[in-house]
Automatic annotation (TrEMBL):
<feature type="transmembrane region" description="Helical">
    <location>
        <begin position="12"/>
        <end position="34"/>
    </location>
</feature>
<feature type="domain" description="Membrane transport protein MMPL">
    <location>
        <begin position="68"/>
        <end position="366"/>
    </location>
</feature>
<dbReference type="InterPro" id="IPR050545">
    <property type="entry name" value="Mycobact_MmpL"/>
</dbReference>
<feature type="transmembrane region" description="Helical">
    <location>
        <begin position="182"/>
        <end position="215"/>
    </location>
</feature>
<feature type="domain" description="Membrane transport protein MMPL">
    <location>
        <begin position="396"/>
        <end position="706"/>
    </location>
</feature>
<feature type="transmembrane region" description="Helical">
    <location>
        <begin position="275"/>
        <end position="294"/>
    </location>
</feature>
<keyword id="KW-1133">Transmembrane helix</keyword>
<protein>
    <submittedName>
        <fullName>Membrane protein</fullName>
    </submittedName>
</protein>
<feature type="transmembrane region" description="Helical">
    <location>
        <begin position="365"/>
        <end position="384"/>
    </location>
</feature>
<keyword id="KW-1003">Cell membrane</keyword>
<keyword id="KW-0812">Transmembrane</keyword>
<dbReference type="InterPro" id="IPR004869">
    <property type="entry name" value="MMPL_dom"/>
</dbReference>
<feature type="transmembrane region" description="Helical">
    <location>
        <begin position="596"/>
        <end position="617"/>
    </location>
</feature>
<feature type="transmembrane region" description="Helical">
    <location>
        <begin position="306"/>
        <end position="325"/>
    </location>
</feature>
<feature type="transmembrane region" description="Helical">
    <location>
        <begin position="553"/>
        <end position="576"/>
    </location>
</feature>
<dbReference type="Pfam" id="PF03176">
    <property type="entry name" value="MMPL"/>
</dbReference>
<keyword id="KW-0472">Membrane</keyword>
Length: 727
């Protein structure tokens, strides 16, 4: 199939290129026109917190207006109450005439006298408040200029939302801007020619653009999450470059052996094209495991990843052969003089270097395998102490004035910080009884240091229009991911709420909020990880066993992937659960790993590591098929693929590392985890563990039951052999 597709594309290059351009354009434009559907409470319903949000959704509460605040504090020392009241009056007068402001409330002094808060109620759709908050921020700046002796700043949901949107937008743009030149530079060094370097980048970018559009279309079936676009860029750049890199290198090798352009493309399709299909299938199967997690976040990430990998595979089998056939020898133009000579020279030197690197694994395989596996297990050991939490507001970048103001707000007004939601659903005729029980519950929290003091006007209880759903906010003075906040949640769920509401007939209740989200999602991940892992392991085993007609190769592939994934987990824990790397990577440790990361990281690593494993093992299989002794076949297979795999790994590590420079803690952890795992996989696994294991196993590497064995033995020849002969 891959050969037929490549032959048609090579013989009709302009048609293939035109069809690809139309496909990408239709996907991108169609996605933008269709728009994105975001997840609802029922889509995100995980654990007790999810049940709480579904109850609130069932209550059909009227949308509360967006509220922002003007916070007035002293620059140093104690706050001058008279000056603060004058500034509050000035802010009230100025904001009253600003477009988008519905009303300005009375100033609220902090109980300790350190601050004065002016609440601002915004008009219009609360979901778009952050897009319309700029006039308020400008007015706040004017008030600040008029009262330089005080610190006057705006803080609240809309202003923080705008700051976060700006930060994430800048991050995404930064990732795009940095990843392109870095990837291009690596490819220029690898190929020594500009066009050859540009072709993989072109395929990767077009694949990302098409997948972005398709993901927005798919969001109407599977709601799209906030991180999906970043993951599409991350995975798309990695696999798009990898697949085309394998293909272009093989086509160049065949032309160097005297093949014409079409023949070279066909052989590349039969070998590297086949490897791309197997690798892409492995990634897609691994990503499909995320659907078993049963929540919209993982389903969204799975959908985006599957789409970009599928598009990259299709592009490598269609438009890439067309481009190579049309360009012919022009693919090696314009040559970068020094780098071009270096690439030609590097081939022989690289083989010698890799022979030396492989020497311990080939000469003393048992000892080398034991030492390397023990080293990887030692690196993986910290993963046993992994903690999972959602990032809270305190984990957002403190480089923005809005987040600095938020810290001062929560210090002066603890009830504006972390809040639990106690939600009760009961028959309407029980509404008065529910309200009395919730009021009593709020009063009982006042004797417990785990909870914040109530405001002067008492507990705020919202009741739905039909009287069936009631919601009580209970604040805690501790940060969302602190142990004290978790203790307060458990105190509510296990003791206080059942005692207050358990006696109301027909009542259902649940406790939600930021702390509950984090705790419930971590429990959800630990529960679903074995299910997803089992699915990925079984299907990966079947794909590898059938591809290589070897049960042993399939089992060793899984074992090596588990080793690299475990080592990556351990490294994540070492870096991010402690504080020693905070200054180096520019983050504040949250003492935990982001809840969704281990599961997503597992499936991504299992998929992407197949790129290298399929490519390397197929080269070893080719050498065995030509009659080489096992030890020599292992050496030839690894050294013969070293240049291509090393270039591909460097591109992946570079792209993933860029995400470690972004502002949010989840993107930093994702970038470091993926970069570390690929680096370990391309070095220790490929250069030490894999050769020592395959050398030690010898002919047993290729054992399979009779029904899986090839019907015809592989052809032994001195001619250049396809990479996947006998596969």
């Amino acid at each position: 199939m891959t050969v037929r597709m490549a032959r048609w594309s090579a013989e009709h290059p302009w048609r293939a290129i035109a069809l690809w351009v139309v496909f990408v354009a239709v996907c991108f434009v169609g996605g933008n026109v269709a728009g994105t559907r975001e997840a609802t409470a029922s889509d995100d319903a995980i654990g007790e917190a999810g049940r709480a949000y579904v109850m609130i959704e069932d209550g059909k509460f009227a949308d509360e207006p967006a509220v922002d605040n003007i916070l007035i504090t002293a620059r140093s020392g104690s706050l001058d109450a008279k000056a603060a009241q004058a500034a509050a009056a000035d802010a009230t007068a100025r904001l009253g005439s600003v477009t988008g402001v519905a009303s300005v409330g009375k100033p609220i002094p902090a109980t300790d006298g350190t601050a004065l808060l002016v609440p601002i109620t915004m008009s219009g759709d609360p979901d778009t408040a952050s897009d319309r908050v700029s006039p308020l921020l400008d007015t706040t700046a004017e008030v600040q200029a008029a009262h330089p002796g005080l610190r006057i700043e705006e803080v609240g949901g809309p202003s923080i939302g705008k700051a976060l949107d700006d930060t994430l937008g800048d991050d995404f743009q930064k990732a795009e801007i940095l990843s392109l030149p870095v990837t291009l530079l690596i490819l220029i060094i690898a190929f020594g020619a500009l066009i050859a370097a540009g072709v993989p980048l072109l395929l990767a970018l077009s694949s990302v653009a098409a997948a972005m559009g398709l993901s927005t279309l798919a969001s109407h079936l599977v709601p799209m999450g906030d991180a999906t676009s970043s993951v599409i860029l991350l995975i798309g750049m990695a696999v798009g470059v990898d697949y085309s890199l394998f293909y272009v290198r093989r086509e160049r090798e065949e032309r160097a052996l005297g093949r014409n352009h079409v023949d070279a493309v066909e052989i590349a399709a039969e070998t590297s094209g086949h490897a791309v299909v197997v690798s892409g299938t492995a990634v897609i199967i691994a990503m499909a495991g995320l659907f078993l997690a049963g929540d919209s976040t993982f389903s969204s990430l799975a959908t985006g990843s599957i789409l970009v990998v599928a598009v990259a595979v299709i592009g490598s089998l269609t438009v890439l052969p067309a481009l190579l056939a049309k360009l012919g020898r022009w693919v090696d133009r314009p040559r970068v003089p020094f780098l071009w000579r270096l690439t030609a020279k590097r081939g022989g030197e690289s083989g010698k270097v890799w022979r030396k690197i492989l020497s311990p694994a080939l000469k003393r395989p048992a000892a080398t395998l034991l030492v390397s596996v023990l080293a990887l297990l030692a690196l993986a050991a910290p993963a046993l102490g992994m903690k999972l939490k959602f990032p809270g507001t305190e984990d957002l970048p403190r480089t923005t004035p809005a987040m600095q103001a938020y810290d001062r707000l929560t210090a002066a007004y603890p009830s504006n910080g972390t809040t639990h939601l106690v939600v009760v659903q009961a028959p309407a005729d029980r509404a008065a009884e529910v309200k009395a029980a919730l009021t009593g519950l709020a009063q009982r929290t006042q004797t417990d240091p785990l909870f914040a003091k109530l405001e002067a006007d008492g507990p705020q209880i919202d009741v739905s229009a039909d009287g069936t759903v009631s919601v009580l906010d209970i604040a805690t003075p501790f940060s969302t991911r602190s142990d004290e906040a978790a203790d307060s949640l458990h105190e509510l769920r296990q003791t206080l709420v059942p005692a207050a509401l358990g006696g109301i007939a027909g009542a259902k209740y649940a406790v939600g909020g930021g702390v509950a989200d984090s705790e419930d999602y971590a429990a959800h991940v630990w529960k679903t990880l074995p299910i997803v892992a089992g699915f990925v392991l079984i299907l990966t085993f079947l794909v590898m066993a059938w591809t290589f007609r070897s049960v042993v190769v399939a089992l060793t592939s899984i074992a090596l992937n588990l080793l690299s994934a475990g080592a990556a987990y351990g490294l994540l824990v070492l870096v991010f659960q402690g504080d020693w790397a905070e200054g180096l990577l520019g983050f504040t440790s949250m003492g935990a790993i982001v809840s969704w990361l281990p599961l997503f990281l597992f499936v991504v690593l299992f998929g992407l590591s197949m790129d290298y494993h399929v490519f390397v093992v197929s080269r070893i299989r080719e050498a065995v098929s030509r009659g080489l002794p096992n030890r020599e076949a292992v050496a030839e297979g690894i050294t013969g693929s070293a240049g291509t795999v090393s270039s591909a790994a460097i591109v992946m590590v570079a792209v993933f590392s860029i995400f470690a420079t972004l502002s949010t803690i989840d993107m930093k952890q994702l970038g470091i985890g993926l970069a570390a795992a690929i680096l370990l996989d391309a070095t220790i696994i490929r250069a030490v563990v894999l050769p020592s294991l395959m050398t030690l196993l010898g002919p047993a590497n290729w054992w399979a039951p009779r029904f899986m064995r090839p019907r015809r033995p592989p052809v032994v020849s001195d001619e250049p052999q396809p990479e996947l002969i006998g596969v």
